[in-house]
User: Which sequence fits this backbone?
């Protein structure tokens, strides 16, 4: 386990826009992420009132980034895939307590 | 002169008091030890403690190759997680990174499990060992703290608190 402090950056975007999120995050120093496919559920009344349509198919991009670059990554994601873009993404971060398998080269593999 | 004499008398009197004060603290610890010994046996069998858990809950996220999903899900369950949720996903690493890490494809699973804070270090160490020792078993794992849970039975289930159910 490593002692470096990490944060989990979570970004929910319209399906097919996960690449935009990763490009923005990589530019700020994030190494990799995991994409989950999900379905959004929006209040139809609220959609009618605010005159917006919520695309139900979503991608959830999860990134583990060092605390130092967390703000930059969030800012980049907001600019490239935020609500004002086609990605219509929202992003937030959660504190990570401990990690395993990050920031260390793998040992020799056994069968 | 009178004041000096009285001052001397006080100075002379002080050393006679000091040894007395030094002697006094010695018996006190013996009393404290006895008090501590009396408290220890009472601390464990308190009936109130049976229904109270000070353990916080953590969300353990384990991201591994899709072929190893079942193995890691079973491993985490064996280590005390009562609830696990497996979601299919894909990695975002490019071909260069995949070659560097010795991976063949992008298909991953994210296993979300709920574990006790006291157990997280042991579980993460075990997972770390497995990540580095099993062929094609490379992955990452991390824990995120829960801030709140509603429902006593839900909390007891998630924290594996079996003292409440006999």
Assistant:
């Amino acid at each position: 386990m490593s002692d470096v402090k990490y944060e989990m950056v979570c970004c929910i975007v319209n399906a097919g826009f996960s690449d935009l999120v990763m490009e923005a995050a990589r530019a700020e120093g994030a190494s990799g992420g995991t994409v989950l496919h999900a379905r959004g559920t929006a209040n139809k009344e609220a959609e009618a009132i605010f005159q917006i349509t919520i695309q139900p198919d979503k991608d959830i991009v999860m990134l583990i980034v060092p605390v130092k670059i967390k703000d930059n990554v969030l800012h980049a994601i907001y600019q490239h895939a935020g609500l004002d873009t086609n990605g219509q993404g929202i992003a937030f971060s959660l504190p990570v307590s401990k990690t395993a398998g990050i920031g260390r080269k793998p040992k020799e593999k056994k069968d | 002169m009178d004041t000096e004499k009285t001052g001397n008398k006080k100075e002379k009197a002080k050393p006679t008091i000091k040894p007395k004060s030094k002697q006094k603290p010695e018996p006190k610890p013996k009393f404290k030890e006895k008090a501590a010994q009396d408290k220890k046996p009472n601390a464990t069998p308190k009936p109130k403690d049976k229904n109270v858990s000070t353990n916080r809950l953590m969300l353990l996220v384990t991201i591994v190759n899709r072929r190893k999903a079942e193995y890691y899900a079973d491993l985490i369950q064996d280590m005390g997680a009562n609830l696990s949720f497996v979601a299919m996903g894909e990695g975002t690493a490019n071909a260069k990174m995949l070659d560097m890490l010795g991976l063949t494809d992008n298909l991953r699973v994210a296993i979300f499990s709920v574990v006790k804070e006291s157990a997280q270090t042991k579980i993460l160490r075990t997972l770390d060992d497995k990540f580095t020792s099993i062929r094609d078993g490379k992955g990452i794992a991390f824990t995120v703290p829960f801030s709140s849970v509603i429902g006593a039975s839900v909390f007891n289930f998630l924290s594996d608190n079996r003292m409440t159910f006999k």
